[in-house]
Design goal:
Elements: H1 21-28, H2 34-46, H3 55-80, H4 82-88, H5 103-122, H6 124-141, H7 153-175, H8 181-201, H9 206-212, H10 217-221, H11 223-247, H12 251-273, H13 275-305
Helix pairs in contact: 2-3, 2-7, 2-13, 3-5, 3-6, 3-7, 5-6, 6-7, 7-8, 8-11, 8-13, 11-12, 11-13, 12-13
């Protein structure tokens, strides 16, 4: 008997639509670019190199640390959190389907390659710092590392990349070389202190972290103890910065940083009374004073190194 064939009823695969520019922009979260760009400008100022002598590299550096590296880290994070976001934040570009298929992953990969290519063009030390930052961006969100699930490694990775490496990049972009030792020391101290800022940022998700098994410090130690640790970690490096600036003979800048530190210390008791309620207020006040101290220190270094 002849074999009877019937037309297949399986629907033909449909092409995955290209994501729209506004949805890609939302995925890259421009609001998150400000902290690394601020640290980058601290680096440029601390180099003591006149802007007009290196302005094309300055523009390239801003593009690198903001839209490219930071934007890529946001895309990586949203791709690997897409299943959780489908429950908690279904309107985000990936779980909502506005960035469909594997486009979220491809955007992260394209951003990684573009970041590395631009960094290689700028210079060797910028390229090295960018590779480290990109490695942490993937390790923070992607298995098997998922550093974001750790109350130690997660904040440390973000503090290093958002503050330390971007400051380093700014100084390297302007100097065209490895930054001097005083710059490296100060950026390392502010990067260490930023661990406290990142710990405070975890307070807004403490209940969700506990439910999802994410071992942030507020989730594992409790908000009161985590808040005290954050305050100490933020303050101690700044004391060292003031001492170093004094030892290097930069009295005015050391005084400015000291005043900003004292103001932070005066604000911390209110934070510690109710960390969950007062963290947004402290981020708007105390954390702002912290980053102003970064800029003041950078001006001090730039003035000293420019002599």
């Amino acid at each position: 008997m002849a074999r009877v064939t019937t037309p297949s009823t399986k629907p033909a695969p449909t092409a995955v639509p290209l994501p729209k520019l506004r949805d890609i922009t939302e995925l890259l979260k421009p609001i998150t670019w400000f902290p690394p760009i601020w640290a980058f400008f601290c680096g440029t100022v601390s180099s003591g190199v006149p802007v007009e002598t290196r302005w094309p590299f300055l523009v390239a550096g801003v593009l690198l640390v903001g839209p490219l590296v930071c934007g890529t880290s946001q895309a990586v994070n949203d791709w690997f959190d897409r299943h959780v976001d489908a429950i908690n934040e279904p309107n985000r570009p990936i779980p909502s389907g506005r960035i469909a298929g594997h486009w979220g992953l491809w955007i992260a990969i394209i951003g990684t390659v573009a970041s590395a290519a631009l960094a290689a063009f700028i210079g060797t030390w910028v390229f090295a710092a960018t590779l480290v930052a990109l490695s942490f961006a993937w390790a923070y969100s992607a298995p098997p590392f998922r550093l974001k699930t750790s109350g130690l490694w997660g904040p440390a990775a973000v503090a290093l990349t958002y503050e330390g490496l971007t400051w380093f990049t700014g100084a390297s972009v302007m100097a065209g070389a490895l930054p001097p030792a005083p710059v490296l020391i100060i950026l390392a101290l502010y990067s260490a202190g930023a661990f406290g800022i990142m710990t405070l940022n975890d307070f807004k998700a403490v209940d969700g972290d506990r439910a999802m098994g994410i071992r942030s410090l507020p989730a594992t130690l409790g908000v009161d103890r985590a808040a005290r640790i954050a305050c100490v970690v933020m303050a101690v490096p700044q004391f060292v910065v003031v001492a170093l600036l004094l030892s290097w003979g930069h009295m005015l800048v050391a005084g400015v940083v000291a005043v900003l530190l004292v103001a932070q210390l005066a604000l911390m008791p209110r934070l510690l009374r109710d960390p969950l309620k007062e963290t947004p207020w402290y981020n708007a006040t105390g954390t702002s004073l912290y980053v102003l101290g970064m800029l003041a220190s950078a001006f001090g270094l730039g003035g000293v190194l420019g002599l």
